[in-house]
Structures are given as structure tokens and as C-alpha cells.
Amino acid sequence: MEKIAIVGGGSWGSALANLLVDNKKEVLIYDNDKNTVDEINQSHTNIAKLGDAPLSDKVKATTSLEETLNFSDMIILAVPTSVTRIVLSEIKKIIKIKKIFVNVAKGLEFKTNDRVSQIVYDELPEEYIEGFVSLTGPSHAEEVIVKKITSIVAASNNLDHAKLVQETFSNEDYFRVYTSLDLIGAELGGSLKNIYAIASGMLDGLGYGINAKSALITRGLIEMKRITNELGGLEETLNGLVGIGDLIVTCMSKFSRNYSAGLLIGEGDDLKTSLSKMTMVVEGVKTCKTAYFLSKELEIETPIIDAVYNVLFNEIEPEIVISKLMSRDLKSEQ
């Protein structure tokens, strides 16, 4: 497949467009912001999202969704989960033939608890869906755009579709893609880890050390596995790139918007103030609310998710929820 269409000209959409050009693909990005489109086409940058990192002059952008859909049979969805359903409702008005949809966002839809694959099949008639692949794992656009080595996963219920995406995005220089047939586990891993990234930022903002962060990551992984197992995914999937791999990178990296929001809260900001300082969507906030109510519905024990929820939405001081976590009844790790 030599032509690839990308819906969303944010940091990840732009970085992946640059990668695909490196892989000798022809790329067209759709974005509804004319300024972003003009900057990509004329200056070959996306400064608001990627700083001064240059984009290839072969990366093209448009404000026409119809042009983008007609450009390729593979559509990369690179928009926040919170607006995916809105974007798909517009696609539904235009789409004429089957497409393979590849989602690269990480989040759960609030109220419905839907993963992006479920949103796609809910919004679009199946006659227009050739297949669905989640491209997910430990990756920051800020590193991919400067060609730093990255490994992620193409997950799908259809191995041929996963392999197609694997071959499309992989190269021998800096980007390697593995395949997985556990779509549920991959989508949940990529979504839930953002909650713990917020918690990780809070810990750093409060001045805690690496011991606390290590405990957060390992115990957070346990909670992720509990939810994934209950929803039909394979908990062993989370032992790989889409689980522990993504959890490590988003809890440890300055590039993580979720970590950055948590850091500001740990330093004293409330949720509204911290989000006002962010230039990109913090997916973990809405995912935390979704996971909190979902865990209660499923009767799953998720004390860290509960703690983050109480800080974000009940405005309880982080020190208080940490004290509550530390004072819980002692138990076996298993």
C-alpha cells in the first residue's frame, strides 16, 4: 500500500506521516485547522505540537476530509479518543468504499466505556470497514520525529491486517512493529497506562523518589491486568510492549502529557489549572473517570485508580490519598 491517509495533524499524526515518507509511502494528512495545514505544507513544521523538528517536504496536508478519504484505503485515526465519534460521524457522510482503519490514540470513551475499535464499529456500517488495527505501545512522537529507535505493536482480530500495518510502518533504521491478535488487551493497555502516568507525575511533584515510582508501576500493572482480564483481554499481553513497556515510558518520560499534568498537580495546581497549561489533550483524565466507574461496576479492586480519581475529581490533596494507600490492610503481593 503506497498511499496512506492520516486523520489528525497533531504530534503523533505528523510524526507518523514523516515516518511513512521515510518508508517510501505517499502521505496525506487531514486537519480541520487551516493554520496547521498551511504550516505543514509551506514551512514543513508543526511547531505547536513538535517544536522545531522538521517534517519532510513530501508530507502533504489538507482541510478536505473527502480528499483524505479518497486518497487511500488505509485510514490512520490520529485524533483524541474524546472526539473520535464526532470525526467518524463526519466520515460516515463521505465514505464510499471499504477502508482499513488504524487507530493510534490511547483512551476509553467516557460513559460508554468503549474502546476505539468499538466506537468505529458502532459509528460506521460494517460494509465500509475492511478491518481495524490498533497501533500502540511505548512511543513518543517527539522521539519518532527525530528517528530514535522505537518498537510498538499492531493489534487486530485479523492477523493479515496486523501484518499489513506491521509492514507498512516498520523500517530497518528506527521503527519496529510487532503483531498481536489480542486487540482488547492492546487497546486497554494503551488506555489505562495514562492514569498511572498522571500518578507518576504527582509523585515527582511531591518530591517522592524512584522507590515510590517503582511500586506505582508494578502495582499499577496489576490493576491493569485485573481490568483487562475481566473485559476479555489476555493479561499476559500486558507483560509486553503495550503493557509494561508503555507503562514505563509514560511514567518516566518528560514527553508524556499525562505525566506533565500530574507533575503540575503534585506541585500544587488543581486539575483545571494544570490542564490549562497543556498544549495537547491529556487522555488519562477522562480515562481515569471511565476506569473508576468501570472498576466499581465490575467490582474490581483498583486502589491507585481510586486515588487518582479522588485527586482529580474530588479535589482531595495528593498527600491524603497517598496516606490512605499506605495505611490499607497489609496483604500478600499475590
Can you offer a commentary on this structure?
By secondary structure, the protein is of the alpha/beta class. It folds into 2 domains: 3-181, NAD(P)-binding Rossmann-like Domain (Rossmann fold, 3-Layer(aba) Sandwich); 184-326, N-(1-d-carboxylethyl)-l-norvaline Dehydrogenase, domain 2, CATH 1.10.1040.10. The protein contains 16 helices and 8 strands. It has helices at 11-22, 34-42, 47-50, 65-71, 81-94, 116-123, 141-144, 159-169, 183-206, 210-230, 241-252, 257-266, 271-276, 283-298, 303-313, 318-326, and strands at residues 3-7, 26-30, 60-62, 74-77, 99-103, 129-136, 150-155, 175-180. An 8-stranded mixed sheet has the order 3-2-1-4-5-6-7-8, with helices on both faces. Strand 7 (150-155), helix 8 and strand 8 (175-180) form a beta-alpha-beta unit. Helix 9 packs parallel to helix 11 and helix 9 (183-206) runs parallel beside helix 12 (257-266). The protein is globular and about 60 Å long. 49% of the residues are buried.
CATH architecture of the largest domain: 3-Layer(aba) Sandwich
**What would you call the quaternary organization?**
single chain
Number of domains: 2
Major sheet description: 8 strands, mixed
> What percent of the residues sit in helical stretches (DSSP H or I)?
40-55%
Number of H- or I-type helical stretches: 16
Write the layout of secondary structure elements.
Layout: E1 3-7, H1 11-22, E2 26-30, H2 34-42, H3 47-50, E3 60-62, H4 65-71, E4 74-77, H5 81-94, E5 99-103, H6 116-123, E6 129-136, H7 141-144, E7 150-155, H8 159-169, E8 175-180, H9 183-206, H10 210-230, H11 241-252, H12 257-266, H13 271-276, H14 283-298, H15 303-313, H16 318-326
Helix pairs in contact: 5-6, 9-10, 9-11, 9-12, 9-14, 10-11, 14-15, 15-16
